[in-house]
Amino acid sequence: MEKIGPLKKVFLSMEVGTTPESMDLTPQPSLFEFIYGLGTNGLTPIEFHLADKTVEDEVRLQINREQIPQVFQHLILPPIKIPEDMDLLYLRFRVMEIIPAEQREVIKALAEIADCGEDCCSH
Question: What's the CATH class of domain 8-116?
Fold first, then answer.
C-alpha cells in the first residue's frame, strides 16, 4: 500500500469544525492536494502529521486561528469561513489518494512556492 512520503502527490479531504466531533464550519469536505516534501524549510507541521499515512487514514488537529500560516506554510488551503470570534479550530483530514508526482508537477509546484514566499495558506 502506498504511503505518504517525499514527492508523492497527496489528496486529502479536509473538514473544519468548532468542536472535535462537529465539523460544522465546512458544509462538506473540501479537497486539498499538494506534493509532499517540497517546502523550502523542510516539512511543514501538517506534513509531519501526515508522514507514512496511507489511504483512508485520518489526521485530526486542534489549532489556533493564528497558527494556520505556521502549520501549513506554503500549502494552499481551500477557503475556510471562520467566525470572527473563533480562535480555536478543529481540523480533520482523510487521506483520499497517494500517487507519485510527475516531474512537471514537481517543477510547477516549486515555481509556485518560489512565487509564494514563506506562506501561501492565507491566499
Answer: alpha beta
Q: Which of 70, 72, 77, 5 is nearest to 37 (CA)?
A: 5
User: Angle at the Cα of 121 (from 4 to 48), degrees rounded to 5?
Assistant: 30
The answer to whether 41 touches 73, Cβ cutoff 8 Å, is yes
pLDDT bin (cut points 50, 70, 90) of residue 120 is low
Q: Which three cell numbers stand for residue 48?
A: 509531519
Q: Which residue has the cell 475556510?
A: 80
Contact between 12 and 32 under an 8 Å Cβ cutoff? The reply is yes
Query: pTM for this structure?
Result: 0.87
Going 69 to 18 to 59 to 8, the CA torsion angle's sign is negative
